[in-house]
Amino acid sequence: MKLLTPIQVGSIEVKNRVVSTAHSAFLDFYRPGSDGERYIAYQERRAMGGTGLLIMTAMHVHASSQIPNHFIYDPDDMAVKFRKIADRVHGHGARIISQLFHFGVQGKSESRDDLTPLWGFSGTISDAGEASHEMTDAEIEEVIDAFAMAAKTAVGNGIDGVELHGTHGYLIQQSFSPFANQRKDKWGEDLFFLKTLAERVRDAIGPEKVLGLRISADDFIKPSDGGLGHARLCQIASTMAGTGLIDYLNHSEGAGGGHYARAIANYRYPFGEYLPLTRGLREAVAGRIPVIGVGKIPTPDLAERALEEGDCDLVGMTRAQISDPDLVTKVATGQAHRIRTCTGSNQGCIDRTGSFPITCIHNPEVGEERRFQALDVPISIVKRVLVVGGGPAGMKAAEIAARRGHRVTLAEFGSRLGGRFTLLEPLGPASNLLTATSWVEQELELLKVDVQTHTAVDEAFLERFKPDAIVMATGAEPHTDLGIGDDGSIPLISSDDAAAGRFEDVKLDMTGLNVLMVDRRANYETCLVLESVVNRGGRVTLVTPFATFGANIGFTHLAYYRPRLHQWGVDLRVSTSLAKIADGQAHLRDGFSGEEDIKPFDLVVTGIHPRPRTDQRELFERFAPTQVVGDARAPRSALEAFREGDRAGRTV
After folding, report:
1. Do the beta carbons of residue 43 and residue 85 sit within 8 Å?
2. How far apart, in whole angstroms, are the C-alpha atoms of residue 559 and residue 575?
3. DSSP state of 72
4. Residue 71 has what pLDDT?
5. Of 78, 125, 342, 635, whose CA is between 20 and 30 Å from 519?
């Protein structure tokens, strides 16, 4: 299998073709004074799982690149952390590269020390609407020297090389893109900055260390707006490969901002969508340097095909290894069928990274590697564990408890496992999320968990079973109680029933119905239910008390939904509530003026949180110590449910 074969990258050999490319994770690694252990453990876990090459979270090289929640490194501080992370990943046979970047003209300066302005080449306006400072010749030289110093700090402390980050709209991409660089001096010449930078960094690290370059395969900007396009970017790749300075080429797409949602696509977009662009780059460099292929490559089969067909020389499987850090080991040991495949939800990873550390919707280990190691100790007593409820939380609790060696029974009242997650089945691309529960279901069978469906856990059951521990994952009950005046003149249905297209257990034809959707959650469920109602033919007015649509979903999903609200004909009313229902009409109250718009509707969908099912808790606690998890504890999303189930399984 080519995926598992070694490859020479510059002066080093990488043991296989699998790469974890740079991604935003645990940025406090670069904060002076932090021990960096959370990030080190995170990367070491992927090295333990067999990955060949790790490319680290991008490091800001200069104080003029300061942005919120990011840190400017201190050389002495980073020397210690670089040595530590290098030693740990090298101990597992992996190679590690430090990605270097400068933010350039993006964002705003308000978070910077002394409110220093954004630095750029031509005084352009940032994506946040702020004017920038046009760097002087001396300041450009200062930034180049900063790249060289950062590179020297990294490789001088055990890191195998550095990667220049020339995509996502950052300073390096700005340097060769007309939308950001209109200078008339030497720094405005084609590739002068990039070539000078590569020369200076190569001088700093020497010939024995690796120097990589990451550029966009397509910048998604029209030439009339200062873009370059795939063909010109291929020429840039060829030119840089021809300098002899670069040891490998990596890529992404776009120029930052709204382009991230397509560069790091969610489940709505096809696997390997950008491999044709990768092939274009590889053909352009003509075998002079290896090329890393990226862009939603979640399975080893697709990765192998990309290699065999000549799209690339190495494969970025970044989210795939967030989801399952043992991906390579499982492939190598004939256990590929047990890989926990990335769902493409983006809920735990990229959609969190602006404000929070990454996790994974169905791999709660992410970011908790140290804590899990402390919990992963042999059990002293094998317990008889009863898990009540077969949704994500209950399934996960059963899996982890069984993996630790307990005797586990999972009792589910319904006919199948999955809980409310099963509502995703008819919802188009979102049904891909069901791979999360199907994977756990497969593991339950392999772990010999006794799964009992159509099973009611009552006092008689508990008397017979005699559990040593109970995990209560009984979920939550959808309802239609909006807590408003309502004369019953308009039918109300829960968001669950709306998603399933049913009313009072009868199939509901929504074609042509005027539907009012009350959105008090502004989350992923709301968006999926809205889409389902539209696809079923409903004409939707959506009211939400929030100031914007989708206030609680990530940007990669918002990028899909926001333009479609208009296409779908949705009448969006933000900062608005449903005050009452009377005489077949809904009173929609503006949150600022208090004025009411009174409109008739055929149906109201109640987008509100379900109610936890906790009525059996007292009963369960009479028989054994009981942990409550998932929606029974607090109705939220599958991400929290999987995590709580995992914790219960580890601590039972």
Report:
1. yes
2. 21
3. B
4. 92
5. 342
Q: Residue type for 453, please?
A: T
Claim to verify: residue 631 and residue 538 sit in the same structural domain: no
Task: List Cα–Cα distances, 331 to 15, 294, 334, 587, in angstroms.
Answer: 14, 19, 5, 58
With H, G, I as helix, E, B as strand and everything else as coil, classify residue 244.
coil
Q: Are 470 and 411 in contact (CB under 8 A)?
A: no
Q: Do 620 and 599 lie in a common domain?
A: no
425 and 501 fall within a common domain: no
Q: Are residues 123 and 253 in the same domain?
A: yes
For residue 243, give both structure tokens.
């300098």
174 token code pair: 């700005």
d(CA 337, CA 333): 11
Nearest to 586 by CA among 553, 542, 627, 555: 542
Global pTM? 0.96
Compute φ and ψ for 334, nearest 5 degrees: 75, 20
CA angle 146, 150, 151 (to 5 degrees): 115
Mean pLDDT value of segment 182-186: 97
Cite the beta strand spans of 506-632 per DSSP E. 506-507, 514-519, 539-543, 571-573, 576-582, 585-590, 596-600, 603-607, 611-612, 626-628
To the nearest 5 percent, what fractions of the chain are helix, strand and coil?
A: 40, 20, 45
- Assign 32 to helix, strand or coil: coil
DSSP of 587-621: EEEETTT--EEEEE-SEEEEE-PPEE--TTHHHHH
Domain at 417, CATH number = 3.40.50.720
Phi and psi angles of residue 599, each rounded to the nearest 5 degrees, phi first: -140, 145
Tally of structural domains, the chain = 3
- Which residues, at least 6 apart from 334, have a Cβ–Cβ distance to it below 8 Å? none
- pLDDT tens-digit series, residues 575-633: 999 999 999 999 999 999 999 999 999 999 999 999 999 999 999 999 999 999 999 99
Residue environment code for 112-144, b if the CB has 16+ CB neighbours within 10 A, otherwise e: beeeebbbbbbebebeeeeebebbeeeebeebb
Task: Please give the single-letter amino acid code of residue 215.
Answer: I
Cα 447 off chain centre by? 29
Query: Which domain covers residue 198, as residue numbers?
Result: 2-372
The Cα angle at residue 23 between residues 21 and 29, in degrees rounded to 5: 115
Please give, one letter per residue, the 3-state secondary structure of 382-420.
CCEEEEECCCHHHHHHHHHHHHCCCEEEEECCCCCCCHH
List Cβ neighbours of 14 (8 Å cut-off, separation of 6 or more).
6, 7, 8, 52, 53, 95, 314
Identity at 89, one-letter amino acid code: V
Query: Which candidate, 301, 307, 300, 306, places its Cα nearest to that of 323?
Result: 300
Provide the pLDDT for residue 373: 79
Same domain (yes/no): 582, 564: yes
Per-residue CA distances from 483 to 112, 475, 503 (Å):
46, 22, 20
